[in-house]
Amino acid sequence: MERLAALEAEVKAEDDKKKAVRAAAAAKLEKQQAESADLRARQAALVTRKKSPSDAGPKAGPKIDTLALAQKAADVKQDLEVQGGKSWVKSGIASLLLGPVGWLYAGSLREAVPASVAWILFALIAGKLPALLLMPILFVVLPLSGIAGAMYAVGYNKKGSRQRLWNKEKKQLPKGE
User: Fold this and answer.
1) Residue 64 has what pLDDT?
2) How many CA atoms within 13 Å lie on the side-chain side of 35?
3) 91 contacts 152 by C-beta, under 8 angstroms
4) d(CA 157, CA 50)
């Protein structure tokens, strides 16, 4: 009975500890959300501030909805800074340096594996060619691969899993086949 009581006390203490950690995390999240809302309110106040008539002279350019632009910038920043997601910078650099092999970091395996195999086969064959012939190809393919790698990481962060860039729609067979 003493062992059972000791075990129950230990389990209760562990549960209390977990509840305290959850409560601290929830408080931290609420604080971050409040700070974010406060920042957005301050940005909105700065953007919507009335301008004096002398500010809007003849050189005033076209009106831009700066509040909407600031909101889009904040959304993009939030998409790029997902906690626990894939780094779009790492993915882009890996894909820039390694070609489609770098796509394996965050890309859809259905697209990254065949592209990586093709890239490695190309490298084996191209190793026999003079470097002068390869440079124009690499100067085009590697930057495009880096962009695709960064897009894979952003897609991963939005959905929480590997996402395809090409052929997203599923092909359906016609009836009767």
Assistant:
1) 66
2) 6
3) yes
4) 38
Rg (CA), the chain: 27
| Per-position b or e across 100-132, b if 16+ CB within 10 A of its CB | bbbbbbbbbeebbeebbeebeeeeeeeeeeeee
Tell me which DSSP letter residue 56 carries.
Answer: S
pLDDT confidence of residue 17: 95
**Dihedral sign from CA coordinates of 148, 153, 158, 164:** positive
> Would you say residue 53 lies in a domain?
no
Percent of the chain with pLDDT over 90: 25
Residue-number span of the structural domain to which 151 is assigned = 88-159
Residue 99 lies in a domain: yes
Residues of the chain with pLDDT under 50: 177
Please give the pLDDT value at position 20: 95
Closest CA to 100 of 47, 36, 143: 143
